[in-house]
Design goal:
Length: 378
């Protein structure tokens, strides 16, 4: 009897050890009705996510396989899968076009896989725009002199020349937090929805000490934008409302359009100094920043020209006899932005600068990003 119990115990211990030694998932996951993103050190299980898609939409797919293998299936209800592939062992990018509206389930199966997947809904209208933009040229430029030793990237878009110029292109295509550059969008939406009327509009200072003397007062829109006052734009965004904000971001095709962490991730101690645009759920890339700005200021959106002109006035950062430069900085957690455009001789050029450098963290700021942008533009 004792011998039998001993054998059972040995088998039980072996079973526990084998189970403990084989992790099923070690990584991060984001999933909603417009995207499914995973990054992992180990993926040894099955995961699913449903996307809500319309006819004409595209599922933009990025698969990274550093080791192991993946299987992927995309299927509407019980219909024949529109995409199915087993034993993927190499990294690749591809698009899956949607012919019929509905809910599509993406199933991913990993076998000892290291890497990641990114399935992103691209609206049919945006897909059409991208097709028409295929004639737009792209080039790489050397801006290392402007950046010096700071790790960062730049993208410049000239509608007149129909050309994108990239410095560190891969970095320009990575989605990160927009931080205070999102005040461009929140100001415009506040104007469009009647939350604020013009650059003199105030939001009613509550008397709290916000730890920044420039924020402690009943600021106008122009002052709040210049001083990058978080509480002011938190009030604007809350009055615009979650549903309207989600709708407008999708119409603008602003990054991942993810406002799921509406109240933010508590990077600041006060509640109204946090939000989805501050190191939280909303992400966008330098390239996408430039694309959104060009839609707004080239007249490819539904926003009133009056509101766009007000936004333009508060964005002015530099001017001389031959050139005006507009933009907004943003920074946080060792990252920094300048996003804007120049006007000279009737021509606009859009620019996004993004910095992220842990080794030169003391040099990373929105003002430094702006200095780099002004040097490049001028």
């Amino acid at each position: 009897m004792k011998r039998s119990l001993g054998i059972i115990c040995v088998f039980f211990i072996v079973f526990l050890l084998s189970g403990c030694g084989k992790s099923s998932f070690d990584g991060s996951r984001i999933g909603n009705d417009s995207q499914f993103v995973m990054k992992y050190k180990i993926f040894n299980t099955t995961d699913e996510q449903s996307l809500l898609l319309e006819a004409g939409d595209t599922i933009r797919t990025e698969v990274i396989v550093d080791s192991g293998k993946l299987s992927i299936k995309i299927q509407k209800d019980s219909d024949t899968p529109i995409y199915e592939r087993d034993d993927i062992v190499t990294s690749e990018n591809f698009d899956v076009e949607i012919q019929e509206s509905g809910t599509y389930k993406i199933t991913v199966i990993g076998e000892n896989t290291k890497g990641g997947v990114n399935f992103k809904k691209v609206d049919g209208e945006k897909a059409e725009q991208e097709e028409t933009q295929q004639g737009i040229s792209e080039k790489t430029i050397d801006l290392s002199g402007a950046f010096q030793e700071i790790n960062g990237c730049a993208v410049i878009y000239s509608p007149v020349q129909e050309e994108y110029s990239f410095f560190n292109e891969d970095m320009c295509r990575q989605e990160v937090s927009p931080y205070s550059t999102f005040k461009i969008i929140s100001a415009l939406l506040g104007l469009q929805k009647g939350v604020i009327v013009d650059e003199t509009s105030t939001m009613g200072y509550d008397g709290m000490d916000y730890g920044n003397v420039e924020w402690n007062g009943d600021l106008t829109l122009e002052e709040a934008f210049e001083k990058s006052c978080i509480w002011y734009f938190r009030e604007v965004i809350d009055l615009v409302g979650r549903d309207k904000m989600q709708e407008e971001l999708k119409n603008l095709q602003y990054g991942n359009c993810d406002i799921s962490e509406w109240n933010g991730s508590n990077i600041n101690p006060l509640e109204n100094l946090n939000g989805f645009w501050l190191d939280s759920s909303l992400k966008t890339s330098p390239l996408e920043q430039v694309e959104v700005l060009s839609r707004i200021f080239e007249g490819h959106s539904d926003y009133d020209s009056r509101n766009i002109e007000i936004l333009k006035r508060i964005m002015l950062v530099d001017e001389n006899d031959s050139q005006k430069i507009y933009g907004k900085t943003g920074s946080g957690n060792g990252e920094a932005w300048f996003v804007g455009f120049s006007e000279s001789g009737g021509e606009r050029k859009y620019i996004a600068i993004y910095l992220n450098d842990s080794e030169h963290r003391d040099q990373i700021s929105g003002n430094r990003a702006k200095e780099i942008a002004l040097e490049i533009i001028k």
